TrEMBL record:
Enzyme superclass (EC): transferase
Domain spans labelled Aspartate/ornithine carbamoyltransferase Asp/Orn-binding: 178-331
Pathways involved: Pyrimidine metabolism; UMP biosynthesis via de novo pathway; (S)-dihydroorotate from bicarbonate: step 2/3
Keyword Iron-sulfur tagged: no
Name of the protein described by the UniProt record: Aspartate carbamoyltransferase
Presence of the UniProt keyword Transferase in the record: yes
Biased composition (Low complexity): 1-16
Species in which this protein is naturally found: Pedococcus bigeumensis
One GO location term (cellular component): cytosol
Functional description taken from the UniProt entry: Catalyzes the condensation of carbamoyl phosphate and aspartate to form carbamoyl aspartate and inorganic phosphate, the committed step in the de novo pyrimidine nucleotide biosynthesis pathway.
Residue ranges of every copy of the Aspartate/ornithine carbamoyltransferase carbamoyl-P binding domain listed in the record: 28-170
Length: 340
């Protein structure tokens, strides 16, 4: 999805309504959030809202991808992303197959390239890939003809998460242009923050990243200067100006050393505690709370914040299906797509 060609889709439109023929981007892959310009993000979010309508129906099935095969190839654990891609593909009538690292021949030592070539040789149309190596999706796109969707590559990117976050926030806050999104937590290990920085900039939001100095990624200062976002180590100072507070998981599985002294100290400095929830609500009763999941309850987010009226966390999960339906539709429906 790296260039901006658009076409008009079939007269019935993605959700099957005659009056809603929508624009479709004929791209081959979604590897990075940077592949999408504003027009393309808008098109995906608009189609997602039509797909959300399908999600509310009793019979949640569109014929759009009948005869297409989508393989979910997950080398890292996942609950939300994998199952929402599976549901998205099924609701669009694609045949969906799930392959995970554990239980496949990769656990016998087969390389990523051989695994991917083997799967592709069966004639799949799209590969949704999650892998612990940054750049894995990009690499795979060079080996096979199928459409590739990056469902998280190491600490690099997670473009569909950023799209579903934007979709969810827009539904509650309206246009994100000029809105202040505060992203807090383990920035160093987060692919979610990298994709969100790109997509939120594309949509014109103002972003502040908050983390202890030990969890600020190297090179972030020059990135912040170049892309116009702000950095802070002081959550309490930033909190009252937030329209949206996005908490990130402390990714212990990616940590080799001690990034903070104790869990308690992390929570005191950077957790969305009950006291901070009260401060946020007092400053801006309409502010929302997001978390990509899975959550470490009691560490980066208190139950009151995760489960309260301002929380959009389950809305994010539900939007994940609609947004992934939209992405599959834009990549796969109709034509073969251009090279990217
Ligand atoms: C995120 C991921 O896997 O990058 N989760 C997700 O996709 N819903 C964030 C995380 O694991 O903390």
């Amino acid at each position: 999805m790296s260039t901006a060609t658009t076409t008009t889709t079939t007269p019935s439109g993605p959700a099957g309504r005659e009056q809603q023929a929508s624009t479709r981007h004929t791209k081959r892959h979604l590897l990075s959030s940077a592949d999408l310009n504003r027009e393309q993000v808008r098109a995906i979010l608009d189609t997602a809202s039509e797909m959300h309508g399908v999600q509310q129906r009793e019979v949640k099935k569109l014929p759009t991808l009948r005869g297409r095969t989508v393989v979910n190839l997950f080398f890292e654990d996942s609950t939300r992303t994998r199952s929402s891609f599976e549901i998205a593909g099924k609701w669009l009538s694609a045949d969906v197959i799930n392959i995970s690292g554990k239980g496949s021949s990769t656990s016998k030592g087969e390389s990523l390239r051989d695994t991917v070539l083997t799967v592709a040789a069966m004639g799949v149309d799209a590969l949704v890939i999650r892998h612990h190596a940054s750049g894995a999706a990009q690499q795979v796109s060079q080996w096979v003809d199928a459409h590739i969707i990056n469902a998280g590559d190491g600490m690099h990117e997670h473009p569909t998460q950023a799209l579903l976050d934007a979709y969810t926030m827009e539904r509650r806050l309206g246009d994100l242009e000029g809105r202040h999104v505060v992203i807090v937590g383990d920035l160093t290990h987060s692919r979610v923050v990298r994709s969100n920085l790109i997509t939120l900039k594309t949509l014109g939001a103002r972003v502040t990243l908050v983390a202890p100095p030990t969890l600020m990624p190297s090179g972030i200062t020059s990135w912040a200067q170049a892309d116009g976002f702000t950095l802070s180590n002081d959550f309490d100072a930033v909190l009252p100006t937030a329209d949206s507070v996005m908490m990130l998981r402390v990714q212990r599985e990616r940590m080799s050393g001690g990034f903070f002294p104790t869990a308690r100290e992390y929570t005191v400095g950077y957790g969305l505690t009950r006291a901070r929830l009260d401060a946020l609500t007092a400053a801006n009763p309409d502010a929302v709370i997001c978390h990509p999941g899975p959550m470490n309850r009691g560490l980066e987010i208190a139950a009151d914040a995760a489960d309260g009226a301002q929380s959009l966390i389950l809305d994010q999960v539900s939007a994940g299906v609609a947004v992934r339906m939209s992405v599959l539709y834009h990549l796969l429906a109709g034509g073969e797509g251009e090279d990217s």
